[in-house]
Amino acid sequence: MTNASVTSPLTYYVALSLPLVAWVGLEYGHGLTSLGTIFAFLGLPMLDMLLGKDERSPSAQDVAELDDTWSYRLILYLYAIIQTLMLWRTFQIWSVADWTWWEFALSVISIGTVTGGLGITIAHELGHRNAAWERSIGYLLLVQVGYVHFAKEHVAGHHRNVGLRSDPATARKGESVYAFIGRCIVQSWLHVWQMEAQRLRNRGKLAYGVGNRMWWWMLLTPALAIGVGNLFGSTVGWLFVGQGVFAFVLLEAVNYVEHYGLVRKEIRPGVVEKFGPQHAWEARYAVSNAFLFKLQRHADHHLQPQRRYQSLKVHDESPQLPQGYPAMVLLALIPPLWRRVVHPRIPQTQAP
Predict the structure, then answer these.
(1) Predicted local confidence at residue 200, as pLDDT
(2) What is the pTM of this model?
(3) What burial letters (b/e) apply to 98-119, b meaning 16+ CB within 10 Å?
């Protein structure tokens, strides 16, 4: 491989520091329970500003070799183990902690930052793989946050409909992140029910019978929460639910950033243009890309969904974000400021 255009696999192993920092914060307790959140939303943007961008793209020859290099894959599997152990230890700490309500709340947000910001990102990466065992690891991570149906909605729904008004995960220009998150959660959930029902109708089966996997996906996490509550106490069961809710809300906040205001135009009645690099925001900051496994090279991910994260390329045609996802999610929480920063960067070819 050409070292000048390839990121070393060791670079991505730094992402393990996020769950470990959050874990340490819980061990010490009290105000330190927010360490994971602070590291993700303050530390990473600061490191992005200090270390700058990574504009390198692997060559076609590099991509073939990169996809076969196991050291890039191992980090994903290790993370799944670490997150599971972290959650188990978190349950133990929660069950005996003598904290105030706000300390528990900070710990829920910190753990949800890890399971949502990093766990769902890795689940997303594995959800695109052909090997069932890799997808299963992704499902395990999604069960832990109560969002298993995301795997189907993302691959079979979002990738097909991105940039269209029918896509729940494409934020509309002028839509606030708060309105978007509520709309996206509800519409995505309903869309998976519809897709599952249609799958069964095509097989001549009952659309909403037991063969509809949404029933099982809906039951998995409540069953896990009840199990956690029985083992560690009902309060811990509810705290587990809370971190999951924060995790998938964070996911949808990232979805908001990824395609905000970018639409695929209708070129003639009933026919829309194909997805292109201009339909996804890109952020090239090195540190946040390492922690998010190059999710911020989002256009290339849509153009080549089967391409593994280490092989993703940059596209000059993509509109560029002024910072990485962690900072942009914070910016989105202040809609007037978000619009002031982002709207001038939306390509003029987009609809007003």
Answers:
(1) 96
(2) 0.95
(3) ebeeebbbbbbbbbbbbbbbbb
